[in-house]
From TrEMBL:
Homology family: Belongs to the Fur family.
InterPro entries the record matches: FUR, Fur_C, WH-like_DNA-bd_sf, WH_DNA-bd_sf
Record keywords, A-Z: Cytoplasm, DNA-binding, Repressor, Transcription, Transcription regulation, Zinc
UniProt subcellular location: Cytoplasm
Pfam families: FUR (PF01475)
Keyword Transcription carried by entry: yes
Protein name: Zinc-specific metallo-regulatory protein
KW Isomerase (keyword) present: no
Highest taxon in the source lineage: Bacteria
Length: 143
């Protein structure tokens, strides 16, 4: 069900539904937490040995660009993780110690105030917010 919903969004945005793109989306659906591009690659490679890592990156970047996938930066690790954006716009809490990323169920950004701060010369089309700190487990270990 979710796969078809996502494919419909892609079609609405004028994107072709290639086997590789379908495989990337299905792989993201397979993960319970946010995978790295390499984890997506390894998942797909198990059933599609001819797929290349550059193809995975290209498809992930396109899906991020059109708003189907969110990219989350993990600090200090020079790594991004990815999630399907099927539940609407939201942000993330990222642990600086273990890298766990959790969804913040709402957007705390005042869009109108943000546009006012940016000024009339800059048109905002979107935003992303990652809040860094320590998860409960890591916070307890720091004491």
């Amino acid at each position: 069900m979710q796969l078809e919903k996502i494919i419909q969004k892609l079609k609405e945005k004028g994107c072709k539904i290639t086997p590789q793109r379908r495989a990337v989306i299905q792989s993201l659906l397979n993960f319970s937490k946010f995978p790295t591009a390499l984890e997506v690659f390894n998942d797909i490679k198990a059933t599609n040995p001819d797929v290349g890592l550059d193809t995975i990156y290209r498809n992930l970047n396109l899906l991020v660009e059109i708003g189907i996938v969110n990219s989350i930066n993990l600090p200090g690790k020079d790594v991004k993780v990815f999630e399907l954006s099927i539940d609407g716009h939201h942000h993330h809490l990222v642990c600086l110690n273990c890298g766990q990323a959790d969804c913040l169920d709402y957007c705390p950004i005042d869009e109108q105030g943000l546009q006012t701060a940016a000024g009339s010369e800059f048109q905002i089309t979107g935003h992303s917010l990652e809040i860094y700190g320590y998860c409960h487990k890591c916070k307890s270990a720091l004491k």
